[in-house]
Amino acid sequence: MVSRWGCPSISGSTEKRIYRIYMRQRTGLYALCIVCLLSLFLFLGDTLFNTRGEPREAIVAYSMIEHGNWILPVNNGDEIAFKPPLLHWLIAGISTLAGGVNELTSRLPSALALSLMTLGVYAFYARRRGVTLALLTAGITLANFEVHRAGMACRVDMLLAALMVGALLAMYRWTERHERGIPLLAWLCLSGAALTKGPVGVLLPCAVVGVYLLMRGRGFWYATWRLSLLAAFSLLPLFGWYALAYAEPHGGQRFLDLIYEENVLRLLGKMTYASHINPWTYNVQTVLTGFLPFTLILLLLLPAGCRHLLGRFRHRRKDAAASRGWWTAIVEWCKGSWQRLCAMDDARLFTLLSVVIIFVFYCIPKSKRSTYLLPLYPFLAYYVAEGILWLRNRRPQTLLLFGRILVGLCGVLTLAFLIVRAGWVPATIFGTGRHAAENAAYLVELQTSHLSLLHMAAVVAPIAMAGYFLIRSTRTEREREPQAWLLCIVGMTLSLFFALDGFYLPTVLNVKSDYAIARQIASIQPAGTIYSYRTDVLEANRMHPFTINFYVGDRIIPIDKAPEMPLNGLLVTGDDEIKNFERAYPQYTAVPLLETDHRSCDDRKKVKVYAFTRK
Length: 615
Known about the structure:
The protein is mainly alpha-helical. It is built from 23 helices and five strands.
């Protein structure tokens, strides 16, 4: 008799148990798909571009479609992309189907990448560590601040993180088969990571797997040649793009210099311009802040973990100190720790190595950003999930405390909104400081913006989830369900993001955006080239009016990069830079057309628009 699994040796009771596990895994997968849809895609296009990073990436895809150059398009007048083109290809492909590049189509690749990464992490751990732990790990991955923010932004970081995590998980499956066969999925993910941000997308995952293979008894040369072969084939698509880009009219030596600076000099800290220079402690700070609100769980677990480690050390110290001294006690404790590390379950060891190696690697370059550490977040989420389950079983009151902290956050957010909406906070509260006008504009927008049904649902969601948690947690001891608290805690966190993404952030950040100024400029000059002028120019990393340029259709070029000096035109500048313009170009006379108090979201300078003509 052959079972539905195609194996004649499985008994009926075992088959039923496997079927129940399979159904639980599938139910969890469906639930995660719904959560990803609601938390990522529902409000993805509501927030206008309000930082220079997003339009800087989106305009590359716009140029690809507009000029038909999908290898090395030119944008912002005379700029080529700093990163390989996979993200821009995805945006351009989606936008072509959707009818144009906008906020939604530009952010879709990041949201899709985060969704697939979340589902992949769930599927990986569900098969190896159980459905409950896998579901909690995936929920924490989706619901921490840094990952959620990256999944809602048009940047390369989320796509890179998802591909690197996918490559790590696929290569782990390859090691389970004793490195037999061709790891096609790993090759695709590694190649995609290289085409997203360069060779680091290949080398770092291979380093993690290499250390894992060594700790599992594989020979050094065996692991080296297997992973080197995989890395070499994974880098072929990137090198193919390098060759094509070098042959482009705007490629050549300029392109080679850019690639060398971004991939080599950035790692060595010898770039021609300062780029996110921070000490290694910056990475510790960003992980702690980026993992909010679950950083609180780490803090709640810290005392118990320290007591556990201290107790083990004291026990070994007493045994060894009696006969051989303190130094021997320390050495034996270190040996015991190493033995316990090597004896860890394969999946847990691989997870730990992924966290440690990725973190240490990104401590080496002088250039450090919080988004560089995104690939370690799913693996760190696994250990946080283990800690939460330990609290559920051993110290449910501590877990209850964390839940009540989240209830307080939900309550404060909702109460603050009601107070502002009622008009009890006057705009004059901000005084006359430098940012007073902006803060007053944010407040007025929160007070007067239209509330649709979806907006009201977003505002109500946190307090509704908080109330549900309180109901479940205030029952008698016999009726309490710590298992249900886990879902409520993740649910409250996601409801906070739902409220922020659905109403609060679009309302505030759309005021900060340069969109309205760009529309005014477009009405003054509906077609043709618009010029920009800046004094703080770095040739290797030139600042442009990125947001305004995107919203006027990539028509702004720096006047010093114009093919020929124009007879007249429209000039976009900032603050009092028009005086420097008149000194640098005495042949022109400039007349103000639009002098605003709006501070650009790109560089925080007040936007000024002039009409200039040759004398």
